[in-house]
Design a protein that fits this description.
By secondary structure, the chain is mainly alpha-helical. It has five domains: 31 residues; 119 residues, Alpha-Beta Complex (Cytochrome C3), CATH 3.90.10; 100 residues, Alpha-Beta Complex (Cytochrome C3); 133 residues, Cytochrome C3; 105 residues, Alpha-Beta Complex (Cytochrome C3). The strands form five sheets. It has a three-stranded antiparallel β-sheet. A two-stranded antiparallel sheet has the order 1-2. A two-stranded antiparallel ribbon has the order 3-4. α12 packs antiparallel against α16. It is globular. It starts with a helix and ends in a 22-residue tail after the last helix.
Length: 552
């Protein structure tokens, strides 16, 4: 081979080496794929960073997925509409734009790759030819294909809660067969009619979209992600095209902290009516007893469930409890467990302490709220055997006779039991609560601390006094006192802390209790921390203890 050919190859090699060094420096400094701190345009700080993966995970000899900034493209291509990248589809309630890149849905991986490269790079090339800001060109593969470990989009999930549901339900532009009804439920809610082979609205069977649309596509049923984007975003887009105020069409509108904060929340939302009772008797044996007309020989007392109160105070969405359907819990969760309920028995569904979906698990989670955590965060976790069963299971046989009971009668009994519950916690009369207590554990270094005892008690009462859950479980007037005066019988004259906590400088080796000084500081400071009190600060000793001077 002639020498000049080697020389040309040598120059090309040098140019290639310089190019690779430039790319390495570029990426090493965070300007490429890595989510540089403080850079809002880096993939790791954007909610619109989409991963385009056309090859299956695990396939070898392929570039990493392409990272596509959706909102960046829509804001840049303002002179073009969605059809620049998307085409119409008839999948869904009505014709809409498909969210796959146009022309790729039915293509093989290799063909889809060629289509993406031809259209995306072609668009970038056209803009570069017009001296406009553009994206990577054919020689800059890593401009799009970035290692997945470098991309961590900060995408939030939007909750279609009762407030958002009401905004759609009451929106005048959203209609469904307006000549027949003022209600617009059918604009979104649908079921599949197998005979007609199409989606239809069925009144009285409205439920969460997630009941049918699962995380992954199942047969012909779209995934929830695709269904939500197909129907919601397309609906918003159609309204905006007609200059009608509508919800977001950009990623940030639903999936960024800022976008979610901009969505107005309606506090007093009318009740969602699906024929549910205000209160309901819960007992797995009651149906069988109604059929036989006899009470079982052994049974647990029935519980009166305040459905209305849970709708208003406990759940922003019905899925909080009805996680698979709006049917009663026992429809899936049987006494012995069943396949349709994931073999979770009805008892477990109600009493699993580690599940936020169960009654007791949800109640336990409420203890982490600021107004409760001051006491409950420091208490040993109560397991099932330590629960107060009769706080819920209080309806004995005498209340449920004669059998059988119709739904109306059962609901009336449950409603009566709910109304009989206290609506405020019981408390000790104020004049029987000491106003101040003097704590002189560290008088060698500090003056005695004056503890505003009555003020603390009244503050706790103000925070949880009308909490219906606390009212049921704080049964005695001294129950609240046991948050501090723990491990001793409730009473107006509890034993001194030194009865259990040694006043010595250190607790004895092997002791399961802290010394007095540690107990005071641990309890007081931890309570302040859990309840979000900024003052007194944990490090501000003098806020509680005035420093002792030479004169005492």
């Amino acid at each position: 081979m002639p020498d000049h050919v080697f020389w040309r190859l040598g120059k090309a090699g040098l140019l290639a080496a310089f190019f690779l060094m430039f790319v390495w420096v570029l990426f090493a400094n965070g300007s490429g794929g890595k989510a540089a701190k403080g850079n809002p345009d880096s993939p790791g700080n954007r909610v619109d960073a989409l991963e385009i993966r056309i090859f299956e995970k695990g396939e070898t000899h392929q570039m990493p997925p392409a990272i596509f900034m959706h909102d960046r493209h829509t804001s840049t291509l303002k002179d073009r509409d969605c059809s620049a990248c998307h085409e119409e589809t008839d999948e869904g309630a009505e014709a809409a734009l498909a969210f796959e890149f146009k022309g790729t849905a039915e293509l093989s991986s290799e063909a889809a790759k060629k289509r993406y490269h031809a259209d995306c790079i072609g668009c970038h090339k056209d803009r570069a030819g017009q001296f406009e800001k553009t994206g990577p060109l054919v020689e800059n593969c890593r401009g799009c294909h970035q290692p997945p470990s470098d991309v961590r989009p900060q995408r939030k999930q939007i909750s279609f809660d009762r407030s958002l549901h009401f905004k759609h339900e009451s929106a005048e532009p959203i209609t469904y067969q307006p000549e027949k009804s003022d209600e617009n439920c059918g604009a979104c809610h649908h079921v599949y009619d197998e005979q007609a082979e199409k989606l239809i609205y069925k009144e009285g069977e409205e439920g969460s979209c997630r009941y049918c649309h699962k995380p992954q596509r199942i047969d012909d049923t779209r995934s929830f992600k695709n269904a939500a984007h197909d129907d919601c975003v397309n609906c918003h887009r159609r309204f905006k095209e007609d200059d009608i105020k509508a919800g977001p069409v950009e990623c940030r509108g639903c999936h960024s902290v800022e976008g979610l904060a901009e969505i107005e929340r309606i506090r007093d939302v009318p009740r969602l009516d699906r024929g549910q009772p205000d209160a309901r008797i819960m007992a797995d044996w009651l149906a069988a007893a109604g059929e036989s007309g006899e009470m079982p020989a052994q049974y647990m007392k029935a519980a009166a469930f305040d459905h209305l109160q849970h709708e208003n105070a406990a759940a922003d969405t019905c899925r909080k409890c009805h996680h698979e359907s709006l049917e009663a819990c026992r429809a899936c969760h049987k006494s012995k467990g069943a396949e349709e309920g994931g073999f979770v028995s009805l008892e477990r569904a109600m009493h699993d302490m580690d599940s936020e979906r169960s009654c007791t698990g949800c109640h336990k989670d409420q203890n982490t709220a600021g107004q409760c955590a001051g006491c409950h965060a420091q208490m040993p976790e109560t397991r099932f055997a330590g629960l107060d069963c009769e706080a819920c299971h209080a309806l004995g046989a005498e209340r449920l006779k004669p059998l059988p009971l119709g739904d109306e009668k059962k609901n009336a009994i449950a409603g009566s039991a709910v109304k009989a519950r206290p609506d405020r916690i019981r408390t000790v009369a104020e004049d029987r609560i000491p106003e101040e207590l003097e704590i002189d554990v560290m008088v060698d270094e500090y003056q005695a601390a004056q503890m505003p005892h009555r003020k603390i008690v009244n503050t706790l009462v103000d925070k949880i006094g009308d909490n219906s859950l606390a009212a049921v479980f704080h049964k005695e007037a001294q129950t609240l006192c046991s948050g501090c005066h723990h491990n001793s019988p409730p009473g107006l004259n509890p034993p001194k802390c030194t009865s259990c906590h040694t006043a010595a400088a250190k607790a004895p080796p092997g002791s399961d209790r802290p010394g007095l000084k540690a107990a005071y500081h641990g309890q007081c400071i931890e309570c302040h921390k859990q309840m979000g009190l900024e003052e007194p600060a944990a490090t501000d000793c003098k806020a509680c203890h005035e420093e002792r001077n030479e004169n005492g």
